[in-house]
């Protein structure tokens, strides 16, 4: 598995503060409607959310009242600071070979080892995967390869067939896209 730096979400992933407030507002509006005895499907349609969300909110509201529907903040705090993550990125830029690996793949297990050695922090492999995704990294290699792949046949096709396919493309010329009505001068 190879990880690559991709698009970064605001604040390292998840919802922005504005979006969190908006979602909390929806839940509190739903709470007012729960108190009035409205049906979940009516509330869902009015607030433009799923019926399942309204059902979850109603259960939470019944157990803890409107306060239970308030935002709890981010699900978890990152264990690495932004400065530490920047240092981790610098270490990863050196490549796995600089960290004693023979091939050039960064896996969550290898990143976990670097974090442990560099920052003396313990992460689970799943936690490292989430940390990487939250900071805009993504997996660049499929989790599994094709069952039947004939590399020799693929290489032969690339050498013999692909050049012919490239040459057979028609040149781009001005004209009509209609088959029945030719281009008029």
Automatic annotation (TrEMBL):
SUPFAM superfamilies xref list: Homeodomain-like
InterPro entries membership: Homeodomain-like_sf, Winged_HTH_dom
Domain Winged helix-turn helix stretches: 102-160
Domain of life: Bacteria
Membrane spanning stretches: none
Name of this chain's protein: Winged helix-turn helix domain-containing protein
Annotated region (Disordered), positions in chain: 166-185
């Amino acid at each position: 598995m190879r990880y690559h730096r991709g698009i970064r979400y605001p604040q390292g992933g998840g919802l922005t503060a504005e979006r969190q407030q908006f979602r909390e507002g929806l839940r509190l509006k739903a709470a007012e409607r729960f108190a009035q005895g409205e049906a979940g499907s009516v509330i869902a349609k009015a607030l433009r959310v799923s019926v399942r969300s309204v059902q979850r909110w109603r259960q939470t509201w019944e157990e803890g009242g409107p306060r239970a529907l308030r935002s709890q903040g981010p699900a978890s705090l990152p264990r690495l600071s932004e400065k530490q993550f920047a240092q981790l990125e610098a270490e990863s830029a050196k490549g796995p070979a600089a960290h004693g690996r023979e091939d050039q793949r960064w896996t969550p297990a290898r990143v976990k080892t670097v974090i442990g050695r560099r920052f003396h922090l313990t992460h689970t492999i799943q936690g490292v995967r989430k940390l990487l995704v939250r900071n805009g990294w993504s997996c660049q290699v499929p989790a599994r390869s094709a069952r039947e792949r004939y590399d020799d046949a693929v290489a032969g096709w690339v050498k013999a067939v692909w050049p012919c396919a490239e040459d057979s493309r028609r040149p781009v010329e001005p004209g009509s896209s209609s088959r029945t009505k030719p281009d008029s001068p």
